[in-house]
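=== Discrete structure encoding ===
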Amino acid sequence: MLMRPAFDGHDVVYVTTLEGLAEQFNASPAELIPDCTRSEKRMAAQAPLALLGVLLRHRPHVIVSTGALPGVIALGLGRRMGARTVWVDSVANAEDISMSGKLAKRFAHLWMSQWPHVAEDAGAVYAGAVL
């Protein structure tokens, strides 16, 4: 949500795994998808289907993700559909790119870290942090 001002003036759809988050931040329109992790096989199968539905409904030109595995899936599906893709690794990962971030590298047209030393070590782009 801290990145919202960067998208002012653009047609944005927010996608979250957290029920009530969009309402809490008055982020509209928003879509709720199931969360998944690599250890939850059933949910890891449901999330891509939900994301595919979101992508087919909205046909985004650009997908920006700061999230975990659902964000990686969104980038992968979106890239196959012709969207430009951007990964911004979480500011919480101060020592290394996150596991999801490492997976996202193969799908992201622009792969970023919010820590200059992490970006340099990993080969990511650093353009500042949101905190």
About this structure: The longest helix spans residues 41-58. The longest strand covers residues 84-88. The domain at 4-122 is CATH 3.40.50.2000 (Rossmann fold).
